[in-house]
Amino acid sequence: MNSPAKINLYLHIVGHRDDHYHLLESIFVFTQWGDDIAIMPRKTITLSITGPSALPLKYFPLEQNLCYRAAILLQKKFNIAEGAHIILQKNIPVSAGLGGGSSNAATVLKLLNQQWKLNLSQDILCELGATIGADVPACIHATSAFVSGVGEKIQPITLSFAGYPVLLVNPNQPLSTQKVFQQFHHDAQAFTPSQSYQNTLEWISKQRNDLEKPAMQLQPAIRAILEKLEQQPSCKLARMSGSGPTCFGIFETVIAAENAKLQLQKQFPLYWMKATVLC
Q1: Which position among 110, 135, 210, 213 bears the catalytic label?
Q2: What's the predicted TM-score (pTM) here?
Q3: What is the pLDDT of residue 187?
């Protein structure tokens, strides 16, 4: 099953709770491209990881992997006697602002719901997913949505530019979400809820990602990537996704996105890039 990459078209920090979780407003979209996950029968929960972005995950303890945590959560919650072997083809860069781990956890929850014949509703899966990570519920929906709260309030929407090509650019240096939020210092603008949203590219282009500034302080390459994307004549919107460092450019045609990729590869030959399409 495809485990798609997530993009934040904008991200407003609009407050924080007493437990220090930040409140946000964002539009989440997903791409046709992502990781791939398969489930095989097994007596215990096991995980194998392959693919171009697999190496960093092999240095993490198994218990920290969100795929594994999702499987263990379901197994214990519903007293499942059997296990499962999770096969993860890891294509999405790690700690990239593309929600790869959250998307993986969501996909495992959905696959094991089928494999173990649990017949859990989407709402129940979202409740369980929220205990794993704030973005997991939106990744269970895996559709364009206005997301608010700490990620638990999800309102599916239809974008006027669904199907547009998008170019993803990452400086091949992971960026910790925790460190970006620690670097974030709110101002009056950042803590002003918009109260509403529109689904047009014109309106979204006037919004912002409040985590761009702190992310740039930690990873200056982000600024250079955005400047280069913005210079592409056919780029409709250039912005950083999530807590970074991946940036995206939205284009009207596949040819335009591929041409932009060629131009950026000349400027940044060692950076990771992927042209795909918004769902």
Answers
A1: 135
A2: 0.94
A3: 61
